[in-house]
Amino acid sequence: MAEKINPIRETSAEAIALARGLVSAAKYGALAFNDPNTGAPDVSRVAVATDFSGMPILLISDLSRHTQGLARDPRCALMVGEPGKGDPLAHPRVTLACLAKKLAREGGEFDALAARFLAHQPKTALYIGFADFSFFRLEVQSAALNGGFGKAFNLTAADFGGV
C-alpha cells in the first residue's frame, strides 16, 4: 500500500508573505457567512481593504443580508486572490477564517480607516458617509493558502499579526 502524502506544506516566511500580500492587494473578495434567517451558508462579494495592522476591513451596509448575518454570528470566511491567464486554479488565493467585529463610527479610528479605505477603494466615496454603512474588521483566526498547484499551506492568526 502506498504511503499517503500530506499535501499541506510546512509554513514558510514566503507563504506568509504571499498570503499577506494577497490580502493587502485585494480589491474585493468572497465573504462567506451564515444567513441570518436560515443559518445556511451564504456568500457575497464585498469590497476589501486592510487596516493599519494588515487585517481585512469591509465597508458594508446594515441593510445587507451579510451584515445581518455577521450581527447574528460573527464567524465568517473571506477568500481573496485574482485569477490570471490560463487555468484560474493555478493562481494563488487565500481563505481566511475570521471573526467579524463592527467598528464604532465615533472617534479617530473611523476617520483614519475611512481615509485608508478610500485610498484603496476610491469609488466607495459615493456611499462611505451613508449612515447605514459601517466598517467591519475581520480578525483572522486561521487561513488556508493555495499558492497554486501543489502549494498548500495552513496559516495561523499569528501569521497575520493576530493572537
Low-confidence stretches: none
Main structural class: alpha+beta
Question: What percent of residues are in strands?
Answer: 35-45%
| Strand order, largest beta sheet | 2-3-4-7-6-5
Short recap of the structure:
By secondary structure, this protein is of the alpha+beta class.
What does this structure look like?
By secondary structure, the chain is of the alpha+beta class. Helices cover 21% and strands 37% of the residues. The chain contains three helices and eight strands. The protein has helices spanning 13-25, 65-72, 108-120; strands at 8-9, 28-34, 41-50, 56-61, 75-80, 93-102, 133-146, 152-156. Strands 2-3-4-7-6-5 form a six-stranded antiparallel barrel. The protein is globular.
Task: Spell out the key features of this protein.
single chain; 3 helices; 163 residues; alpha+beta; globular
Topology:
Elements lengths: L7 E2 L3 H13 L2 E7 L6 E10 L5 E6 L3 H8 L2 E6 L12 E10 L5 H13 L12 E14 L5 E5 L7
